[in-house]
Write a structure and sequence with these properties.
By secondary structure, the chain is of the alpha/beta class. The chain has one domain: Rossmann fold, CATH 3.40.50. It is built from eight helices and seven strands, in the order βαβαβαβαβαβαααβ. A seven-stranded parallel beta sheet has the order 3-2-1-4-5-6-7, sandwiched between helices. α5 links the parallel β5 and β6. α1 packs across α8, α3 runs parallel beside α4 and α4 runs parallel beside α5. The termini are far apart.
Length: 248
């Protein structure tokens, strides 16, 4: 019994999009440490290779793909092996006031955050590449639940993918495939440190009950739980991982 671990991913094959950096990279690394075989994908070949080289174990696959390109989505599905878990993590943000929105901006955000995951799920299912007993996890955001200036496009895209997740849970339940979402608060990334002043970051952190932003592993562990057999009776759930931000 010393090796008993219901959160183990030993022997499972997990596809992670947006694995070039951030939450996606950390999720892939942590999945490999728990015994999973990884199929990782991202737009940037060099960054994706860096992730690949950090994975534990052998037998992993890396596939460079731009999910805003339909041909790349088809190629990703064609090259992907049969999987036990699918982490829809790739995302795109755009933060500007409504008066300054342009159609191409809306299209770009929705293409990556909503349309690409929908197309991937559809094609993987049609190719019978998600095993019965499998798990699909979508990276959403507390922005889907929280109103704030300059978040209209990003927040609405995350609300859309969260709603889509619930439909997946209902439709795929008879196939024994689960669908859930994680809704992170702000996570420490180079984007945050490069675009927001230290004073503004400090003020924003005060809105969090734990007085800090998340780390990529804080979210990765929640994703791993949803992928594991420990969550075998959980589907259609939105798991908020926000350090208490929504309590304010």
């Amino acid at each position: 019994m010393t090796n008993y671990n219901p959160f183990s991913l030993d022997g499972k094959t997990i596809l992670v999009t947006g694995a070039s950096s951030g939450i996606g990279r950390t999720t892939a690394i942590e999945c490999s440490r728990l015994g999973a075989h990884l199929v990782i994908t991202g737009r940037h070949a060099e960054n994706l290779t860096q992730t690949y080289n950090l994975l534990d174990g052998k037998g992993h696959v890396q596939i460079v793909a731009d999910l805003s390109c339909p041909a790349d989505i088809e190629r990703l599905v064609a090259l992907s092996p049969v999987i036990d878990g699918f982490v829809n993590n790739a995302g795109q943000g755009d933060f500007r006031l409504i008066d300054y929105l342009k159609q191409d901006i809306i299209n770009d955000v929705y293409q990556v955050n909503v349309f690409a995951p929908m197309k991937l799920v559809k094609q993987l299912l049609r190719k019978n590449k998600i095993l019965s007993g499998g798990s699909i996890v979508f990276t959403s955001s507390i922005s889907a639940l929280l109103s704030a200036p300059a978040l209209s496009v990003y927040a609405s895209s995350k609300a859309a993918i969260t709603a889509y997740m619930r439909s997946c849970a209902v439709e795929l339940g008879p196939r024994k495939i689960r669908a859930n979402a994680v809704l992170p608060g702000t996570v420490e990334t180079p984007f945050i440190s490069n675009t927001i002043s230290e004073d503004d970051v400090a003020k924003d952190k005060e809105l969090y009950a734990l007085k800090r932003y998340g780390k990529p592993e804080d979210v990765a562990y929640g994703i791993i739980y949803m992928l594991s057999d420990a969550a075998a009776w959980i589907t259609g759930t939105s798991l908020v991982i926000d350090g208490g931000r929504l309590l304010k």
